[in-house]
Amino acid sequence: MQFFPYLKVSLDSKMALARLTLDLRKTSKRSDNSYPIVLYVYHKKQRFITLGFSSTIKGWDEKNARLKKSASYNQNKDHDAIEEEINDKLHLAKKKIKNFGRDINKINADQLVEAIKNSWDSQIDTIERHQIKNNITLVESGNVIINRKRKMNSPSTAEWYSSCINRFLKFCKKDDIRLVF
Predict the structure, then answer these.
(1) Among 48, 52, 131, 165, which residue carries the largest CB count within 10 Å?
(2) Strand partners, 51
(3) Given this model, what pLDDT does residue 20 score?
(4) Mean pLDDT on 95-122
């Protein structure tokens, strides 16, 4: 080691590991004899992140980390959608680990898992998440515009906006409508 001091740096830097697997612990076994598909993360300690899908031991290809389409347990599942989602999450986890570089040694396994989950939340967008993020209704948005018009000394325009919103809500037979952007 004296002649190759640069080797010590590469030996000391510990990279994290992320891969897809079944959680075969006794406590994880489900009533239908399946096990959850998890993202196995190892960084000083092992951690499992449940991905929301499950399979039996015979229905999981451990070598290729994917569902077996021929397994009876997996017959009624949308294999392509499941594969896409779990592989996207695996890719984002590996990307997060790579982005940490040598600084990964400054965090523990729980912090790494939290960073991975946060990267999923920021990358994977759904309609429901979008609705929760915006969280504004037609009446709230309309009131902002109406109040601006009144402050600008345009009461007739403000009344016209108010009337239009009320007529639209009456037409929809709703008290208010959540806006989605």
Answers:
(1) 165
(2) none
(3) 93
(4) 87
Pair of tokens at residue 113: 């898992």
Kind of pairing, strands 66-67 and 136-137?
unpaired
Do residues 27 and 82 share a domain?
Answer: yes
Range of the domain at 161: 136-179
pTM of the model: 0.60
Residues 113, 118, 120, 124: what is their CA dihedral angle, to the nearest 10 degrees? 170
Same domain membership, residue 88 and residue 47:
yes
Rg of the Cα trace of the chain?
26
Amino acid at 108: N
Residue with tokens 């984002």: 92
The Cα–Cα gap between 19 and 151 comes to 58
User: Which residue type does 47 have?
Assistant: R
> Does residue 40 lie in a domain region?
yes
